[in-house]
Amino acid sequence: MPATIIYDNHANTQVAKANVEGDNLWLATEDLTGATGWELKPEGACRGETCVTIPAGRRAEFVRPDGRFNLAALARQIAQPYAVDERHVVWSFARAPEAIGAQLRSLEAPDFTLPDLDGKLHSLSDYRGRKVLLMSWASW
Prior knowledge:
- The protein is of the alpha+beta class.
- It has a domain at 3-99.
- 21% of the residues lie in helices and 29% in strands.
- The chain is built from four helices and twelve strands.
- The strands form four sheets. A four-stranded mixed beta sheet has the order 2-1-10-9, with helices on one face.
- It is globular.
- The relative contact order is 0.14.
């Protein structure tokens, strides 16, 4: 069943052969890496320098004999929030709490890009090291 995965800072990724079973999202290992950056290694699920060990006695909850990996089980293991639109088969995973905590401790604002009144795009990162005044307004 095709699914759309929105993971952390990755763009929307269409996964053609995702298996959704209740609150579990099973992905082929190549889809797992392409959509999220996580890789299944002997030491567990790894993304960059971070590796999450698959708990002893619970391997079947994370990995199937055919090599499929349960991304939702990983998210639950690391307390990563996610939301599911069952009707449209869209899974959206937020940043893991440890990454958010590190960002907050750094006191560095997350980067974003917005257009000015002329349509020119400006990213906050373009102004790093300079004082910036951000003003926002909403009509609601």
